[in-house]
Amino acid sequence: MGSATAETDEWIDDDPATRRPGQRGGAWFAGLLLLGVSAVVGCRIADTDGITPVPQLLAFLPWLLAPTTAALLLAALTRWRLGLVWAVAALAAIAWFIEPYGKTAEAKGTPLVELRVLTSNVEFGQATDDLIKAVRSERPDLVFVEECEELCADKLRQAFGPKDAQDTRDTRDTRDTRDTQDTQNAQDTESAKDTYPYRQAVPGNGSDGSLILSRYPLKPAAGVKGTMGMPGATADVKGNEIRLQLAHPMPPLPAHLDDWRKELGALRDYAAADRTRPTILAGDFNASQDHAAFRRILDTGLRDGARLAGHARTPSWPARTAPALGAQIDHVLVSRDFSANSARFLDLENTDHRSLIVDLTLHERT
């Protein structure tokens, strides 16, 4: 009887300081884990991105299940009842917010045209060669390229630009050394010429440059102003006018949180400015659906193409260091005029982002 009473007292006593040394340490560690998790989850509940390090951690919200589960186990081992209740509540909140955010109803009007859209951050142009291979293989209709500096832009022009564009590649006579594969490559390159005769770009060095390639005629648009280039255009797709905007706001680095919020806000304003025409907003948003600033863009009525195709939580970054534990920050957002038939993420060499391809159908608005 006395043993049972003592055991019950251990569960009732919620002050870690009164426990045995081993239990005390476990309970304190569980409490610290839960404090950190609760700060992040609390901001998610409050619909705010908070201050550093909350915005950085919000990108990985689903993975907070791991430290929260660890805290639950520690609370159980140390018989800390309040910790158990706290951990269960935190797990429930995380599980609730893992549910994808935003609208999912697809367009139901008459199908007008099908489009394949590719977005790719080539990381300072380093993945340009792999992007060229992917474009030749996948044959998208629209290509949004972030961090495309001058050499990247030149390579894309040489590979896909108009046939009369100046080609600055090495033209040495290699008749005696070119093998069969080289000949095939040359034929593939020539056949790819003129496939993307239209482009809208913001030139720049390093991460500043970005561009849109199109099989269809483009009319220049003002674009969204930001620290890095975010070109805009209007595409004429078989008589259908579609607004295009590339997204590449600043990342949420501690010193640039205000810029990050401001530029995501500018993208939100772009999305809200014209809801009468079909719109595609694509690129590296440096934000996931767990960021309030990104959800404000979805609240304008745009839908996430990857989510519509069943890939709401597929990570796109960081592709090199921990791809399975990453976050989806590369998106193709579309207006209600589109349905998404499929979405795929491609792994390119020399970039920390996965490329995203979404097959879309434009419908007549009802």
TrEMBL record:
Q: Where is the composition biased (Basic and acidic residues)?
A: 164-181
Question: Which residue spans traverse the membrane?
Answer: 26-45, 57-76, 82-98
**Superkingdom, taxonomy of origin:** Bacteria
Gene Ontology molecular function, alphabetical: endonuclease activity; exonuclease activity
Report the Gene3D superfamilies cross-referenced here: Endonuclease/exonuclease/phosphatase
- Positions of the UniProt region annotated as Disordered: 1-20, 162-213
Q: Which SUPFAM superfamilies match?
A: DNase I-like
InterPro entries linked? Endo/exonu/phosph_ase_sf, Endo/exonuclease/phosphatase
Q: What are the alphabetically sorted keywords of the record?
A: Endonuclease, Exonuclease, Hydrolase, Membrane, Nuclease, Transmembrane, Transmembrane helix
Q: Where is the Endonuclease/exonuclease/phosphatase domain?
A: 118-353
Q: What is this protein called?
A: Endonuclease/exonuclease/phosphatase family protein
What organism does the UniProt record list as the source? Streptomyces montanus
Q: Source taxonomy lineage? A: Bacteria, Bacillati, Actinomycetota, Actinomycetes, Kitasatosporales
